[in-house]
Amino acid sequence: MMFDAQGTPMRLLPWVGDSGTPCYLSTDDPGGRMSRLADEVETDLLESAQYVLREARALLAETGVGTRELRFTGTRLAESLQDALRIAESRGYRLAPALTRAEAEEATAGAAGPGAGIGGA
């Protein structure tokens, strides 16, 4: 969880910056323009993930599927999972009771256990 200069928790956005780093929103208005945009993007990403999963299941039910199709499908599934996990993390922060900066840092440090960071961002 990130905090702004006033110590207010910032919202983890459902997209990343050009270098792949997380983007955060500092606002006191959860119904503001950027918050609504983030909500819409989250909805679009989750709907896309549902579509990818549906299509992947159909592909896996077929016989004689080639390596290229399986690799493509696996890549799309991994991307969708990454998006869904980012959204879950963001929503979890917003559902959790307000933590102090020290409590949040302690919780984040404890969460980085074995296997943390495997496979990229």
Indicate the mean pLDDT.
86
Give unreliable regions as ranges. 115-121
How many beta-strand segments? 2
Helix segment tally: 3
Radius of gyration, whole Å: 17 Å
Shape: elongated
Strand order of the largest sheet: 1-2
* Intertermini distance: 15 Å
Order of helices and strands: EEHHH
Major pleated sheet: 2 strands, antiparallel
Percent helix: 55-70%
Strand content is 5-15%
Which structural class should the secondary elements be placed in? mainly alpha
What can you see in these coordinates?
By secondary structure, the chain is mainly α. Helices cover 57% and strands 8% of the residues. The protein is built from 3 helices and 2 strands, in the order E-E-H-H-H. The protein has a two-stranded antiparallel ribbon. Strand 1 and strand 2 form a beta hairpin. Helix 1 runs antiparallel to helix 2.
Short description:
This protein is 57% helix and 8% strand.
Write the layout of secondary structure elements.
Elements: E1 11-16, E2 22-25, H1 33-61, H2 67-95, H3 101-111
Antiparallel strand pairs: 1-2
Helix pairs in contact: 1-2
